[in-house]
Amino acid sequence: MSSTDSTSSTGKSGKELIGTAAGPGEDPNEFIVVTPDEQAVKTGEFITYSVPVEGTDRDVIARVSNREQARGLPETFMADPNVAPETVASTLGVPTDEIDLYRLEATVIGYYDTGMQTFSNPRQLPSPGTRLWTAPNEMLEAILPNLGVDEQEATDASGSVELSRVNVEEGEGIAHMGWLLNREANAVDIHIPIDEFAATHLAILASTGSGKSYTAGVLMEEMMMPDSRASLLVFDPHGEYGTLSKMRGDEMFSSGGYQPEVEYFDPENLRIRISELNVGDVMSILDNPSDRMQERLDGGWRAMQRRESRTWGVDDLLDEMRQQYGEDDSSVGALEWRLRRSIQRNNLFTTDANVPLDELVAPGRCTVLQMDTLSRRDQQMITTVLLRRLYQARLASVRNRGDDDEYDGEIVEHPLFALFEEGHRFAPSAGEAPSLGIMRTITSEGRKFGFGLGIISQRPSKIDQDVLSQCGTQVTMQIQNPTDQDAIKNSVEAAGEEVLRELPGLTPGQAVVSGDAMNTPVLIQIRPRYTEHGADSIPATSQWRKAHERYQQQPTRSESADMGGGESSGEEDLL
Amino acid sequence: MSSRSTNDTGNEASTIDDCLAIGSIVNSNSHMDYTVEIFNETDRDRPPEPHECGFGQPVFINKTIDGTEYIIMGVIYDTQLVDPDQGRSGPRLAQGDQPQFTPGYVEERTTLAGVVLLGTAEVAGDGTVKSPSQEMPRWTLAVDDVVKQCPDEVIRSFHSSPDDGLQIAYIERLLDVAGPLGAEVTLSIVERLRELFPEDPNQRVLDVVEKDVRWQSSVDRGVMR
């Protein structure tokens, strides 16, 4: 412990004497602290005490989980709002100065074990009378996120281990997400290790308007910093990430010769080569194919995939099937109509064009797939095919297939991170989506192949539980809906009661970060973005007003209103 | 027993010297709790009327300590009637119209009053009081000390805090010592203070205190939860 024994406050470091341990609490890891000060300690605050573990004094961190008034003026003194309870108290000769006592319940998290590089529970509660301090800012910065601070980093010249001296900001590959909510702005900056969530996946869960795209933007900015230079792929069904291009040319992001690239792909250059589809994908976009039709298609498709050429189309497929099953086969006839309708007449599918993967993804490049003009089914289709290609390319890279002369597939040599805005569209918990299979595969296997996914969603309950539960790091923001809260409870391992209890009370920009990237869940304020945010709601009233003024200036039109025929996507969004 | 002349002004007396003596101390139950025998016609020319020594009547006792004259404030929180003749069923020597033959003990029917001490105040030269203290008095009273009816002006001074507010700091001791009638005696004091402190903030504080006492006693007596 530091030498500030007599003074109660050390100001800037954030270490303040706050109270005295009164005894054990209800749970094995809980203890009670009595504190006289009503301002200093909030629920969720990290406090610390010193306890000897195997001969060394360790600073144990605990989290304040509850706060009750232990002593104060009786409520009957507050019977009349016009009379201050202190006035009643002084009339009755009751002392009012510093009589408020608070009783804090605190849960032990543990001391930071530099060998294990995580918290270790000493299984030893502070004995009654032990003094408690708020944990120093620098120490929290070093040990709350899973930064793997080891003994070497924490040892100073004199050989003593002092976690507060670890300078977190010097580290590489970390994302500055924001600061601890209970402390002053920027007092305890939270840097999470990008390697961790890029390997074990990320989920950003929050209701609409609480800042999930903003948070994703912050993370993307951090991942494009010179010390990370990530290869990012963003599936953006709303076109919300248009402002990221501002990173290019911003001094903040450049270093040496490096400048982040931001590429936008719109549906025009997001065609899918038909031969990239597998038979399951095709089945999923056909209208109720019969068993016989499925069998015919399966046979035909296999034959086509065995061919050298990869530029075949629906006509070639139909020829192949007629060859196999005869000219007059009624199922092939029925398939023809369905295939032409679903594939041939859809601009999304072509026979030849295919964006090479190395054009699509590269280190230091953020690729945004702007899919806002596509239907949901087409978005899923693009995602499916692209993910499958990327996954196989990563697989080939990890398995060193590049050296194999026979391998003619694509190879992506660097790890990838793909971010899914509206994640529940691509991995829905109910209903079919062709992309679900590959999403499940990547979330469960991707870690081994350097392929991380980030799922952003406002409806955690609508995301496939297998996918969600595999997301090792979670950034959870305000969520009121009880179904969604349940989904988080059921599928997010790290979400303890304390995390769930906070969710309804968060305001936009506040988040709970938990999981693999953290040593313990913390409540943070997301930092401001360096680039502008692009997903603000449309200001309806001002636009109505402008539109109305515009109409007023135009001559009256005599056409009748078109009440139907337009494609509505709103209904789909509700599903 | 010192016999001091009293006048008829009773509660309207403006200085402590003119106050009506209502009894003398005969016994004590504790440091805070004394028994007073109320004067009757044989003790005083002008014995107190029932309304002058009733339940909740603030009283005081003069006491000179170390050359400084103090008053010790108290309040009547209980009364008791004593009749030595009670239970006697034997023949009487005298008829109702022959008082000259009345044996002494018939006249020894008395009214006793319980007085709980509230605090002290110094007596200023002009007969008013100053420096009220609602702490427990440290001095003990003596048997035969005369208990006087407390004038309104003294009650007011005694309950004024240094910052011109209202003070009833003895309330918890009063409630404790007065026992079963504690709530009632407190409420009767509050009632008197309402008239003596008509200013709005004080009235509101008294409202809060009164409600609190009523509520607490109702809860204690099982009327309310």
Distance between the termini of chain A: 56 Å
The greatest inter-chain interface is formed by:
A-B, 13 and 20 residues
Question: Quick check: average pLDDT of chain B?
Answer: 84
Tell me the total number of β-strands of chain B.
7
Helical content of chain A (DSSP H or I, runs of 4+): 25-40%
Taken as a percent bin, the fraction of beta residues of chain B is: 25-35%
- Sheet with the most strands of chain B? 6 strands, antiparallel, barrel
* Global geometry of chain A: elongated
Q: What is the strand arrangement across the widest sheet of chain B? A: 1-2-5-4-3-7
Strand content of chain A: 15-25%
**Helix/strand/pairing class of chain A, anyone?**
alpha/beta
| Order of neighbouring strands in the sheet with most strands of chain A | 9-8-20-19-18-10-17-16-11-15-12
- Biggest β-sheet description of chain A: 11 strands, mixed
Q: Quaternary arrangement of the chains shown?
A: heterodimer
Low-confidence stretches of chain A: 1-10, 568-575
- Helix and strand element order of chain B: EEEEHEEEHHHH
Q: Measured on Cα atoms, how large is the radius of gyration of chain A?
A: 29 Å
Distance between the amino and carboxyl termini of chain B:
50 Å
Question: What is the number of beta strands of chain A?
Answer: 20
Offer a concise description of the structure.
By secondary structure, chain A is an alpha/beta fold. Chain A has helices at residues 85-91, 137-143, 151-154, 194-200, 212-223, 279-285, 291-305, 314-325, 330-344, 357-360, 376-398, 423-426, 435-449, 465-469, 482-491, 497-502, 540-553, 570-574, and strands at 17-24, 30-35, 46-53, 56-71, 101-113, 118-120, 131-134, 174-180, 189-193, 202-205, 231-236, 261-265, 272-273, 349-350, 365-370, 416-420, 451-457, 473-476, 510-515, 522-526.
